[in-house]
Structure formats: C-alpha cells, structure tokens
Automatic annotation (TrEMBL):
Record-annotated OmpR/PhoB-type domain positions: 124-221
Domain Response regulatory span(s) in chain numbering: 2-116
SMART domains referenced in this protein's UniProt entry, alphabetically: REC, Trans_reg_C
Keywords carried by this UniProt record: DNA-binding, Phosphoprotein
Gene3D superfamilies: 3.40.50.2300, 6.10.250.690, Winged helix-like DNA-binding domain superfamily/Winged helix DNA-binding domain (1.10.10.10)
Protein name: Response regulator transcription factor
Coiled-coil segments: none
Length: 224
C-alpha cells in the first residue's frame, strides 16, 4: 500500500514515514504543498496524509485542486487546527477524514486502513447534473450560471438527490436523510419536491426530478 505524506515539519514527517513503514506501508514524503500536489497527481497512491498549514500551497488548496481534476485518491487531513469550521472546510473541499495534532498513532493507522478499504470514490466538491450545480460549502445553487435561492430544506433535498443521480429513492429514504426522521408524513416529501421543481425546473423548461410511480423519485444525471 502506497502512502504519500505531505508534512512540512520534517521531524514529524520522518517519524510518520518510519512508523508507517514499520506497518508495511510504502511511504513517499513531500514538505510543501506544490511538491505534494505534483506527487499526488503523478503517483499511484492508495491514500494521502495531508497537513493543512504548508508552504507554497495550503492543504486545503491541494485537496481542492485534486478534486477539481477528478483525482479521487483518499485524503486524510492532519492538522493542529481543531476548530469545527476547520474540520468542515476540509471535508467540504473533498477530504475523506480529518485528524488533529497531537494524535494517536494507532488511530491514524486504523483510519488509513479504513480509507484504503473504501478505495477511491468520486467525491466532487461541487455536485452537478448537466448545467445544474450545487456547492455544499458555499451553500449555492445555480442553473446555467443563474443563481437559484432555495430554503435550507429544499437545499438538503436537492443535495441528497444530486448525490444519487439516476437512482430511485423512496420517500422514506428522503425523510430519513433530509428530515432525519421516519415519523413525518411522507406526503411532505411530495410537497417539497413540488417546491423544488418550481425553482430548478419550471423556469428553465427542464425535468430534472422525476416521479417513479409507486417507488419514489429519480434525479436525471444529465440535468433533465
């Protein structure tokens, strides 16, 4: 298993390499963001351990650029920044996990193994279906570059559907993930799908959110 460690503190980077090699990993090191980005682009890594505060390019920028290039190598961000917004920023930009310093080495290795088991999966920072785009971090939705104002519930519904393009999802699944409950009347989903269509489809002459009779809804991957 090949690991890229991008860490500017050389003693820590060396210690990580020794420890990971002892666990059977093959480890490459980079000490700034630009070198880390280059190696991540060119190397066939199973996972990247990425510090945030780096010379040249920050870990946030490295992660953002890799995801923009549709490079889905699993990324574990490693940082002394432990605020909840720091964590949210890292995950919103496409990182898979986030560990704060000081950290448990046993936990680090366990998390790396978990990421490797999952493998490289698509995790775009901006969700798209044709010309419809939703940015979870910026909380914005556009269609053909035209901004669309959604309520928080409408936004959550659209995000859930965009994360499962082409799949049929039931009202129960939507209630569980968007409303976080099974107890709400399922008809509320139908109401909010109607609200959503009037904002993202009707003004643009599209049919993005489609009803699958007796089963639920499907979002057209091409944007309708």
């Amino acid at each position: 298993m090949r690991v890229l460690v991008v860490e500017d503190e050389r003693r820590m980077a060396a210690a990580l390499r020794r420890g990971l090699q002892a666990e059977g990993f093959a480890v490459d090191l980079a000490h700034d963001g630009e070198d880390g980005l280059h190696l991540a682009r060119e190397g066939d890594y199973d996972v990247v351990v990425l510090d945030i505060m780096l010379p040249g390019l920050s870990g946030y920028k490295v992660c953002e650029r890799l995801r923009a290039e549709e490079n889905w190598v699993p990324i574990l961000m490693l940082s002394a920044k432990d605020g909840e917004y720091d964590l949210a920023d890292g995950l919103d930009l496409g990182a898979d996990d986030y560990l704060t310093k000081p950290f448990s080495y046993v936990v680090l290795v366990a998390r790396l193994r978990a990421l490797m088991r999952r493998g490289a999966r698509r995790r775009p920072a901006v969700l798209r279906a044709g010309d419809l785009a939703l940015d979870p971090a910026a909380r914005t939705v556009t269609r053909g570059g035209v901004p669309i104002e959604l309520t928080p519930r409408e936004f959550g519904l659209l995000e859930f559907l965009l994360r499962r393009p082409g799949e049929v999802v039931s009202k129960t699944e939507i209630l569980e993930h968007v409303w976080d409950t099974y107890d709400t009347d399922p008809n509320v989903v139908e109401v909010y799908v109607g609200y959503l269509r009037r904002k993202i489809d009707v003004p643009f002459g599209r049919n993005t959110v489609r009803t699958v009779r007796g089963a639920g809804y499907r979002l057209a991957g091409d944007g309708g």
